[in-house]
Amino acid sequence: MGLSSLVYPGARHSRFEHALGCLHLMQKTISILRTKGIVICEEEAVGMQVAILLHDIGHGPFSHAMEHSIVEGVHHESLSLQFMLALNEEFDGALTLAITIFQNKYHRKFMNQLVSGQIDLDRMDYLKRDSFYTAATEGNINSERIITMFNVVDDQLVVEEKGMHSVEKFLIARRLMYWQVYLHKTSLVAELLLERVLVYARKLTKDRVILKTSNSLSYFLNTTNHEINSLDFLKRFALLDDYDIVSSLKEWQHHSNFVLSDLSSRILNRNLLKIRFQNTPFSNSQVEEKRATLSTLNVKDTAMDNYVFTGGISNQAYVPDIKAIMILTKSGEVNSLQEHSQLFFENSFSKLESKFYLCFAKPNF
Predict the structure, then answer these.
(1) Chain segment 305-328, per-residue pLDDT in tens
(2) What confidence tens digit (pLDDT) does each residue in 145-154 have?
(3) Cα–Cα distance, 319 to 336 (Å, whole number)
(4) pTM exceeding 0.70
(5) At what angle do helices 215-222 and 231-239 cross, to 10 degrees?
(6) Which domains does the chain have, with CATH numbers?
(7) Which alpha helices (DSSP H) does the chain contain, by range?
(8) Within 13 Å and on the Cβ side, how many CA atoms surround 86?
């Protein structure tokens, strides 16, 4: 949930609970599919459960907020795979099938679709879980009903026609949860600041400035070119958690470097930057106007980018061209969801929605 607890105080659940929830849903799904005559041997069942249990193990502190600031240019799924490969060696190949399913290389494609698809068990768990802990009822989906309506045709995951409206509710919930919770303006600007603190701390470390932090985080601040498939890297990454970041911020808020101190204290004391949204990119003149209001601030132009910056966010509830959700009709035909659902009239529901933001410090600073 990143820094969503700044907005929703109850949103302090961890990815560990999420992983266990996903495992529970996979066990339920396997049981239901078996009652419908879908043959899943015990080895496959274990592989499916291990794949969903470990699918998010590559996430670092504060979830997606830190994805590219601690280890540059590396997606959490790549790290998850490296952890699974390392565990596979430790357990003498016991995870081989789980890894094959996770990579979508197993011939029975429905198994990967349950782990990583447009109506997978990952999304089903986090929507219901996050809705509960944030009290954002828009995300409260009927996962029990959807799983009951799962079936398999030609080794592809399908949803029986009776469950189509539950699927529609699932897609609507995901769309609303992104705008209302995951991309909420306050948690968004806090996460953007957190990214910048880590990037700036790495720059200072490179310039031989001594920063008080944990040994685990210090390793990542001091090196940029990581061998993510090395056991040493994985062990160090596994030691990182939210506490490393928060304790570092508490130390850095007293540092002599003004920018590091100020940005750290802003996050800790919730004195965040302002953020404005619009449907088109912000112009250079709009950015320069905000920078001019902070001209008295005694920081270099490069550091000013931490106080005035722009970017964009997007939300697409359903991507029909990628792992489309398939509906099994009462007559036995299999068609895509968009052929049945009124949500996709004129493709309005599957359209990519984008917003652009401008973050800036208040002039009185």
Answers:
(1) 999 999 999 999 898 878 889 999
(2) 999 999 999 9
(3) 12
(4) yes
(5) 130
(6) 4-184 (1.10.3210.10)
(7) 15-35, 42-53, 76-90, 96-102, 110-115, 121-134, 143-148, 164-177, 185-206, 215-222, 231-239, 242-252, 258-268, 284-292, 301-304
(8) 18
